[in-house]
Amino acid sequence: MPAATRSAWCDVPRLQVKQFAAVALDEAPRLAQDILDEIRREFPHLPLVLDESGEPLALVGIRRAIEGFVRQLAEASADTASAGQLPSVFQEFGRGQSLHGRSLDSLQAMYRLGVKLAWRRLADLGQRLHIPPPAMYELAESGYEYLDGLVDQSVRGYAEAAARQAGERLRQQRKLIGLLLEERALAPPDPVKALTERAARIGWPVPERVAVGVLLRPARDAVAPAVGPDVLLDMETERPRLVVPDPDAAGRPELLRRALSGWSGAIGPPVTPPDAAKSLRWAESAVALMARGLLPAAEVLHCTEHTQALVLLQPEELVDDLARRALEPLTHCGPAHARRLAETLLAWLETRGGAPEVAARLGVHPQTVRYRLRQIRELWGDEVDDPDRRFELELVLRARRLRGELGPA
């Protein structure tokens, strides 16, 4: 293996190194102030935060960075000058950028400006004290390595603050979702005020209409869908829930369709925010029907596109009781014949036409339809002419068709 490159600072007499460090430390406060002044000229909107003693926190950080770098140089050599304890205040700078919604780009630009000014001053000092150029070149490289360490500190602080902010926003978002979806929570006297106050904590503008969705995970460890920042999403429940603002706004359905690709579930009808729990109930009903195979289960469906199924299949016990009474005449027929008569009766009720129209819908001969219609007349008599009776018959027969008990229309 090749021998390690010898540090140029090892060839500088220790007394000269200590002299360089002493002068640099003596000039550190003035250099720090000059650097801060230049940074504030370049970045006039930079807020000046004071520490507990009333001194600018940025000035403290710059001075500590200079002093830390120089002390490491005096204690060892330039090749270790970037490896010591870094000022923790630079983590605070990163946290501040995150908390104020600013990126790290401007902060890093300030750091680079500071290092450039510091290097100029240290280079002048090196010339005055006759430090050999190779050692000064090495010092410059170490300075930029030290800068990388300061940037890493700021990145760490930025990431920690961002994580805390995200966690707090999620906590507040779940509380907002809970307030929206608990019917009692938004009871009078002023549900809109309570909702507005809670929404303001996460900067969520309360829309005029919302739709609530219930999702079924494609896998237990599925990544949350990218539904956008204005859609409230709660992934902490077994079946994730989402609150969609202004669901009928231009482009919203397409954005949701793309974001929820690969997921299944249901989105309830649009309602006012205080009525969000009602939209949730319809979405939950749709998901229950999906589990029974009565609604498509391979996508996120919209309840407004399946109104008939939700209305007719949801009150199952009531519809079954009505069916027992309305279709009682068919109990005297065999199962296959009863089904054919039921399908014919439903086609006749839907078309309000004669034998040819009904036959075309069923795909049978008109004479067959005439025969079945005569039987229907015999079984129900004049009841099939009563509007209320016809409505009941069509309702229960449509429900049976939705369940797959009758052939398709």
List key phrases describing it.
409 residues; mainly alpha; five-stranded mixed sheet; rod-shaped
State mean pLDDT (0 to 100 scale).
85
Query: What structural category arises from helix and sheet content?
Result: mainly alpha
Q: Give the C-alpha Rg.
A: 38 Å
Run of helices and strands: HHHHHHEEEHEHEHHHHHH
- Profile the largest sheet: 5 strands, mixed
- What is the helical fraction, as a range of percent? 55-70%
Order of neighbouring strands in the sheet with most strands: 2-3-1-4-5
Based on DSSP secondary structure assignment, what is the total number of beta strands?
A: 5
Tell me, what's the shape? Answer: rod-shaped
pLDDT < 50 stretches: 78-84
Number of helices: 14
Describe the structure.
The protein is mainly α and 409 residues long. It is 59% helix and 5% strand. It has 14 helices and five strands. It has helices at 14-42, 57-75, 89-99, 105-128, 133-181, 191-200, 252-259, 276-291, 307-313, 316-326, 335-351, 355-362, 366-380, 387-402, and strands spanning 210-216, 232-234, 241-245, 264-267, 300-302. Strands 2-3-1-4-5 form a five-stranded mixed beta sheet. Helix 10 (316-326) packs across helix 14 and helix 12 packs across helix 13. The chain is rod-shaped and about 120 Å long. It starts with 13 loop residues before the first helix and ends in a 7-residue tail after the last helix.
